[in-house]
Amino acid sequence: MSLIVVGSMAFDAIETPFGKSDKIIGGAATYIAWSASNFYQPIKQISVVGGDFPQEELDQLEERGVELEGVQIKKNEKSFFWSGRYHLDMNTRDTLETQLNVLGTFEPVVPDSYQDAEFLMLGNLVPAVQLSVIQQLKKRPKLIVMDTMNFWMEVAMDDLKKVLKEIDVLMVNDSEARQLSGEFSLVKAARSIMKMGPRYLIIKKGEHGALLFHGNSVFFAPALPLEDVFDPTGAGDTFAGGFIGHVARTKDISFENMKSAIIVGSAMASFCVEKFGTTRLKEISRDDIENRIQQFRDLVNFDIQLA
Ligand code: AMP
Q1: What is the residue with the minimal CA distance to atom 5 of ligand 1?
Q2: Under a CB-based contact definition with an 8 Å cutoff, are residues 244 and 145 in contact?
Q3: How far is CA 252 from CA 3, 202, 258, 283, 294, in A?
Q4: Residue 294: which residues within 8 A CB-CB, separation 6 or more?
Q5: Cα of 114 from ligand 1 centre, angstroms
Q6: Does the predicted model carry a pTM greater than 0.85?
Q7: Which of these, 61, 86, 121, 287, is most buried using a 10 Å CB contact count?
Q8: Distance, CA of 123 to CA of 120 (rounded, Å)
Q9: In whole angstroms, how far apart are CA 241 and each of 19, 58, 96, 143, 157?
C-alpha cells in the first residue's frame, strides 16, 4: 500500500521583482515529494532526469522515504528546464522558456514494486505520460489526483481530456479553470470541468486561497497572509503534496476529509513561498507544520450571533 507521485523533476531559473535565481532544483514531482513525505512514506516516485541532475538531490529524497526505482536517469541527456518571471503581484507569471529535454521522449515504466498503490498523484507532466501510468496500473488506485497547467492545454488538449476521464480530483489555478472550460464564472467553470471526468475540482487562487468543488458543494480554504513572499514557484505542487499526503495518511477520501486536506496543502504552500526553490521545504519540522496549521484554524475561526 503506498502513494505514487508522478511529475517533472527539473532545473528552474526564476525571476521575481525582488531577486533572481540561477539554475536551481525544481519540478512538480520534486516539490510534491518534499511536501507529501511529511505525512506519508514511502512515496514511489516516477519521473525522468538527465545526467546533469545532482545525485545529492536524489539521495536527499531517498533519505526522506522517497523511492526512486521509477525515476529514469538518462546519463547523456539534459534534465527538463523551465524558467519564469513573476509579475509585481507575485500571483501571475510568464513562462520565459520550457526545454523539455528528457521529458520530450519520456516513456514511464511502472515498476512491479509500485503496483497495488492506493493513491496516485499525477503532478504536472505530459498528459500522455500521466495516462500511461494510469494504464500500467493493474489495480485502479482508491484515489487519482491530477495537476496540470496552461502549457498542456495549449499543446496537448486532446490527450489532457483523455486523462480527465480517468481521474477523481483535478487541481488547476483559476485562469487554467477558465481556459479549460471556456467559462469566466468559476462556479460555471467547475460545473463544466466536473462533467469532463473528475468528481472533485480544486481551483487554486494563489494568495487568495483555494476552492474545493464536489457536486453542488463548495469549500474555501484561505491562504495565510504572509509578510514576505519570496518565490511562489512550486506552491501549487507543494499544495498538491500536502493534500495527497494528508489523504494518504488518513486513508479517507470523503469530501469532509478533503476539506482538511486542502488546509494542510495551503499550510505547506505557505512555507514553500518563503524562500527560493525547495530550500524552505527542506528545513521545516513537524512542529513548524503543526504551528502553521494552528494559524489557519485561528485565521478562519469566528463566532457570529445575530440579535
Ligand atoms: P508551480 O509553481 O506549482 O506551478 O510549479 C512550478 C514547477 O513546475 C517548476 O519547478 C517547473 O519545473 C515545473 N514545470 C513548469 N512547466 C512545466 C511543464 N510544462 N511540465 C512539467 N513541469 C513543469
Answers
A1: 234
A2: yes
A3: 14, 17, 8, 28, 21
A4: none
A5: 24
A6: yes
A7: 121
A8: 9
A9: 26, 18, 25, 14, 24
